[in-house]
Amino acid sequence: MRLTLSRSVQFLSSMNLAITLLLVIAVASVIGTILRQNEPYQNYIIKFGPFWHDIYRRLGLYDIYSTPWFVLIMAFLVCSVSICLYRNTPKILASARNFQLHQRANHIQHLTHHARLDTQTGMDKLLFELQHWLKQQGYRVQSQATGEGMLVAAIRGEANRYGYLLTHVAVIIICIGGLLDSNFPLKLKTRTGQVQIETRDDIPLSAMDKRTILSKENPSFRASVSIPEGRRVNTAFINMGAGYVVQPLPFSIQVQDFRIEHYNNGQPKSFASDLRIVDKANATSLEQTILVNHPLNYRGYTIYQASFGDGGSVLKFSLFDLQSPTLQKTAAQLAVSETMRLPGDADALQLELTEFKKFNIFPDNDAATDKKFRDFGPSLTFKLRQADGTAREYLNYMYPVTIAGRDYLLSGVRESPQADYRYLHIPADDNGSAELFLRFLALLNDEVRLRPLLQRNSTMLIENTALPISPAEITNVLIRLVDLFRRQGFDGLKAHFSTASDAGISDAQDLQNASLKMLQFALQQSYLKVLEDSDLFTGELSAHEIQFLNDSIIALSSLHEYGTTYFIQLDDFEEIQATGLQISRSPGAKWVYLGFLLLTLGVFMLFYIPHQRLWFLLSGTDTGTHLLYGGSRTRHQADFGRYFANISHTIKQTFAAH
Amino acid sequence: MTTESLSQPLMQYDDHRQLAAVDFLWLFTVAGGGLFIGFNYHGYMNGYEQIILAGSSVTIGWGGLVWTALRRLLIVAVLFSLSAIYLYAGELTNARHFLLEYMLASQSAIMWMSFLFLLATGSYFLALYSRSAFTATVASALVWAATAMGLTGLLVRWYESYLIHPDVGHIPVSNLYEVFILFCVITALIYLHYERRYATRTLGGFVMLVITAAIGFLLWYTFERQAHEIQPLVPALKSYWMKIHVPANFIGYGCFSIAAMLGLTRLLKQRKPAARSILAQLPANDVIEDIMYKAIALGFAFFTIATILGSLWAAEAWGGYWSWDPKETWALIVWLNYAAWLHMHISKGWHGPAMAGWSIVGFLITLFAFLGVNMFLSGLHSYGEL
Ligand code: HEM
Q: Is B378's Cβ below 8 Å from some Cβ in A?
């Protein structure tokens, strides 16, 4: 029994084990950096498949640093260092202080570094002066009369030996402090069932298992919470891999405002939250602004600015039906992350508001010379989901964006999150709105209004082209062209005529050119009508209006690629941001910091305060005193050689002259 | 000159010298400079930054006393930087001034640094081949000159960042480009320290190889990625901790890379080199191993401090002194590895090729912690992405 105990002590304090442990911890730590830790389980299942997921989960690889086996290795290290310290400390302290007065001339002569000096000074005087000089050099000195003369022993740098103690004690303190703050105990409790992990999102506390809600007195945790501006909370959440647990706080935190400041290149410069802490127990409240790198400490809790997001900004917008024969505008209001059904039949589209951004600052390519930045203003991101679950994503800007001197309302569309947005450029009217374009579009959608309009003006076309054709016939053609264009754009027209030429119709190219002219005519007449109806027409199309018409035609031509028959125009918003806070309590921190201090001191003492000894044997001669001296250093013999040569030089200069 | 003289003491060993008048002049100048900055700009500094200023002044004063060449370097770099500031006169548009454009503007100074380092590397090897002590002396001088230009580049870049916009101004240790310059400067200084300490210039070429590699990266990064443009700081980096954490880290990295290069030379010497080989001129194996140990010890000490500072910073920025973020964890791995190396060396007395090889492995681990983590792993350390 004794034997096994002493054997295991020996094993635990062996240097081989120590080195092995250091390397094993290093290797095990690598795993946690390659495998992302503490992600939701679904992510892992998608990545590794259910089989490997299960194995990894059992091995604790998803939260490796608080897995029992990892903690056990750390515990081994702490044991090893402790036992090592326990065994070495007495020896080290004893040798640090021991002057080794047993040295004799014989020993000193055999030191690698030794020297001799004959002086004319008497023994007592030399002894006194030597001791004085050594003390000046920072040595502790003891002397003893021996059969061979007077032995003076000097030690400097005991701190080196204390450095060993400090370094290794520090390792123990840091590990224990770290354990106090780790979530290892919490993990154990979830294993024993004392704590229940909640996996459902967005459910009220009252509906949760009591065991999901931790004690208010929990001394050590790191939790996070997202709080919309204006709201107040008194709980936070601890992420546990499969789900979360709830950490109630003994006070409540209200977020009065959250702000992002930007550099003028649009990069964020600071994130700040104005917090109000309301503490019922103390009947106090405290207001403070926190920033990244400037947390708030309150009653042993530390509150950090960790992240931010949308807290449910309320958006007012107009919904336009792009197929309606009249300008139909439906006003709606929805908060970010909410959804609604678009008007229509049972399997109508579902609108999901995903994001609102108040600023969109981009480098300004228009000002090519200087690097300038331009704010594109507020934007809204949403998804339109079909009954079968597939969705397209849209990004609409609230205000027109000036491109090459003309204003457009931009709406981007993409089929998948990986793709880039393709933008629809709707020319903005003088009010900065899409309405003029939409009126134009509505007229093109409305055969009832379009047919008489085109018929009335078709005589002009017949006169111009001198075609042998009746107004009714040509109106039919125009209507068909407009319809084809509306449905498939220029691409559709081209496709139509290329099938015609494939079919062997000889003058297909001429036909296409003529058709394009006729379409142009129809669109222009319609546009004039819309201007007239809006009391905008002044008799002659201005350059600006022609530009508008051309831009409209380009937009119309790409409408069939837009993927939806709705257009959403953001009218107004009330921005509500949410701040992401991290709240922690770490009773181990003070121990860890103490460990840090000891470790730093210890390491520097170990490396840079050499522990060295000198011995001087003084023996009387006829003319004075003979000095035999030598020294050694625990480590770094090469450096000591240099040092010894140096002091030897000084000793000769100082004492030989007398 | 003979080979002998290559390993003659190059400089008086001056740990125990008496202070002379110029030493007091030096201390007086450093103290004056520190106080001048302290009084004129205390409005821009918080308490911690004032402590850092005081600490830096003391360190610089002390450093210049025990190593007079360092003092000359600092004086030159500061004079260059002040000239640059004078020429800029508060306007970035003055960068067209001849002296700025070709020498003192940060980008030019850094190009000079790169050029001089490359020249120094070549000269060290030339000295070995031609057995010329004079060439070796020139190589050392080139390293000093390169270091002066690098330091000037960093100081002037610091000033230029404020010229772009007072908001943008920050100490140039905030991204990969800037820390590579820092790495070159610090590694060169540590090497020069050992060169003086061990009175040999024969190792210079081998140590400079790592700086050459860093210069290669720096040039690629400049010309391919326009990484030299000054960018404002992300909020997470706006902290006084950065000012001490990053330099401490790079003293560690510098030491470890020197140790690895020495490990390399030690391995090259494993088979007894022929008398005519340049390797025969290198110091004895135990001397190389001794420097290697010293470098790892120094690196370990500073890496310990750097990791501790990083941890204290994390406590303030991320809400916990240890989050097992990949960068943090790799710092721990590096640290544990060198702790194991040191124990092997001290307690088991291991030496020779195995330890030399291990120091190279240690450097590869360090390299991954420094670059690989940013390139391959994600985490809270947002800076320095490639
Ligand atoms: C994370 C854990 C550890 C750290 C950071 C650490 C650090 C150090 C350092 C920096 C040195 C000085 C090396 C030198 O002077 O070059 C040292 C020496 C030493 N360590 Fe550790 N150590 C650790 C674990 C251990 C363990 C587990 C043991 C016990 C088996 C141990 C036993 C020793 C011994 C015996 C010495 C030599 C002391 C001397 O005579 O100077 N260390 N340690």
A: yes
